[in-house]
């Protein structure tokens, strides 16, 4: 089974193209593995287990998770994203740019405008190729969800948006925002001193978040510039987080700290976020392919990843 590794600002994923030979219009989940060997029947793999195995930087490929590109009945393709711990995320802002790049660079779509089905809805991408290869993409990320019950977050009365609330038992003051996946945004003065490694896991697992949460530590440089570090649900501190940058931008505007268009400076680089007047969030950033390879069948079998 062939894989590709791509990253957006150092937030990297191992991609499996399961569109089969039918390309984007193929039907049903999974398809033939590409390449001459007998393909591993996709139903034979435990995706959560595979995500943990490939993400391991020692015994695996090394990534923040696994992304499957699957046929879709309603879009050019369907994306499933699994974090490094095997949990499935609803959306991935950096990862979806990699899906667009794989589709376009391999000639599986011809248009620069592609639609990808995710658990957070069908999202539209505009791809920016140079010499036939995508370098950047703009993603229509949809509307932020602020109603705590839908984030989900057990905060406030569950309906009205909650801004800057102290979590029970913690010093942390968070603004919860969902971009289809949950985020707890904290504003800090000095990012270098932000307690990412101590507070990240504690807040990720805080009882206020029944599905856990991603945690963003944000310093506001000016009304158009944020600086951020992120502790990702299921992956730990990563170099960048697309949905997290969007959540940070929304929280910064809601709390009067920033305008509707910001550059978000992350350890891995800069993402541009705009929250337009019709309540839609746009994310733009680079995407790069690192390598392609083939998962070794013995490696898969030794990890119990192939059902007999
Ligand atoms: N850890 C996230 C998924 C990856 C999101 C992040 N890599 C992004 O670019 O949006 C979650 O469980 O919701």
From TrEMBL:
Its EC number is 5.1.1.7. Belongs to the diaminopimelate epimerase family. One of its GO terms (cellular component) is cytosol. Its main location: cytoplasm. It comes from Limnochorda pilosa. Catalyzes the stereoinversion of LL-2,6-diaminopimelate (L,L-DAP) to meso-diaminopimelate (meso-DAP), a precursor of L-lysine and an essential component of the bacterial peptidoglycan. Pfam families: DAP_epimerase. The lineage of its organism: Bacteria, Bacillati, Bacillota, Limnochordia, Limnochordales. It catalyses: (2S,6S)-2,6-diaminopimelate = meso-2,6-diaminopimelate. Keywords: Amino-acid biosynthesis, Cytoplasm, Isomerase, Lysine biosynthesis. InterPro entries: DAP_epimerase_AS, DAP_epimerase_DapF. Pathway: Amino-acid biosynthesis; L-lysine biosynthesis via DAP pathway; DL-2,6-diaminopimelate from LL-2,6-diaminopimelate: step 1/1. The keyword Cytoplasm applies. The active site is at 92, 92 (proton donor), 241 (proton acceptor). Homodimer. PROSITE patterns: DAP_EPIMERASE (PS01326). One of its GO terms (molecular function) is diaminopimelate epimerase activity. This is Diaminopimelate epimerase. It is an enzyme of class 5 (isomerase). The record marks 183, 232 as: Could be important to modulate the pK values of the two catalytic cysteine residues.
């Amino acid at each position: 089974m062939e894989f590709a590794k791509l990253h957006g600002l150092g937030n990297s994923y191992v991609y499996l193209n399961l569109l089969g030979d039918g390309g984007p219009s193929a039907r049903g989940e999974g398809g033939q593995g590409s390449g001459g060997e007998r393909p591993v029947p996709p139903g034979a793999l435990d995706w959560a287990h595979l995500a943990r195995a490939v993400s391991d930087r020692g015994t695996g490929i090394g990534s923040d998770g696994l992304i499957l590109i699957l046929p879709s009945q309603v879009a050019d393709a369907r994306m499933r994203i699994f974090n490094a711990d095997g949990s499935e995320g609803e959306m991935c802002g950096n990862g979806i740019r990699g899906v667009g790049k794989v589709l376009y660079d391999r000639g599986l779509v011809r248009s620069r405008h592609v639609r990808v089905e995710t658990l957070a809805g069908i999202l539209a991408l505009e791809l920016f190729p140079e010499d036939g290869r995508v370098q950047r993409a703009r993603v229509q990320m949809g509307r932020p969800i602020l109603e705590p019950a839908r984030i989900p977050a057990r905060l406030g009365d569950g309906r009205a948006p909650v801004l800057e609330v102290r979590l029970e038992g913690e010093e942390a003051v968070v603004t919860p925002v969902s971009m289809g996946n949950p985020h707890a945004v904290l504003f800090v003065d000095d990012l270098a001193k932000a307690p990412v490694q101590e507070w990240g896991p504690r807040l990720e697992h805080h009882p206020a978040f029944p599905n856990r949460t991603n945690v963003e530590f944000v310093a506001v440089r000016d009304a158009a510039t944020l600086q951020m570090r992120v502790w990702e649900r299921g992956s730990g501190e990563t170099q960048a987080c697309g949905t997290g940058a969007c959540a940070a931008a929304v929280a910064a505007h809601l709390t009067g700290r920033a305008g509707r268009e910001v550059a978000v400076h992350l350890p891995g680089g800069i993402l541009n976020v705009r929250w337009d007047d019709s309540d839609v969030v746009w994310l733009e950033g680079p995407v790069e392919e690192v390598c392609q390879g083939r998962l070794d069948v013995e490696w898969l079998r030794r990890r119990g990843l192939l059902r007999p």
